[in-house]
Amino acid sequence: DTEVTQTPKHLVMGMTNKKSLKCEQHMGHRAMYWYKQKAKKPPELMFVYSYEKLSINESVPSRFSPECPNSSLLNLHLHALQPEDSALYLCASSQGLRGKGNIQYFGAGTRLSVL
Amino acid sequence: KNQVEQSPQSLIILEGKNCTLQCNYTVSPFSNLRWYKQDTGRGPVSLTIMTFSENTKSNGRYTATLDADTKQSSLHITASQLSDSASYICVVATTSGTYKYIFGTGTRLKVLA
After folding, report:
1. Contacts of A87 in chain B (CB under 8 A)
2. d(CA B82, CA A68)
3. Cβ contacts of residue B44 below 8 Å, gap of 6+?
4. Per residue in A99-110, is it b (16+ CB within 10 Å) or e — as a string?
5. Which of B49, B52, B91, B94 is the best substitution to test chain A (most A C-beta atoms within 10 A)?
6. Tens-digit pLDDT profile for residues B77-111
7. pLDDT tens-place string over residues A24-35
């Protein structure tokens, strides 16, 4: 199983809502990532977790709050978002953080629209 | 500044034809270079990964080359199929500070029947 599952596939939320994006993998990977991707642009790294600890936070606004409850799950909690936060949110996982052998497997993404 | 540039930005070819996509990078220190295929609305899927010492890597009809001296890579697609229509993203991994992936802006390929 080389699958990274993201739910929901689509999400529409108002600027005052609180919602969460979920990501799950069962490949035994110890590194998990959140990316944000705007249309026709490459993915931009938001957060990296390694062994369930936050390893990298790319100066992401606090209205995005990541959580890694266990080695298979990664959540992204959303609160008081802005319309410009509308994008495709991608989750990825890899065996570790470094080296050629660490292939990143991406989920299909959650398409988020903030109204 | 670590950058990955891809060309062309977009490309349209006829089914059955070959094409070559380019990637130039100024990333240092270099760890490895990856090519991904991303279908519209989907996550990227890894095609090839190459380290400094590897000049070429194939995955079916996809062949990637790497010239670490000139900091250039190419992705050659042979006998294109309609299903090859996608964005192709070049990603360079660096060990500068924390381990990071630098994404290129991608080439959007459209294969026509």
Report:
1. none
2. 39
3. A43, A90, A104, A106, B36, B37, B38, B89
4. eeebebbbbbbb
5. B49
6. 999 999 999 999 999 998 766 678 889 999 999 99
7. 999 999 999 999
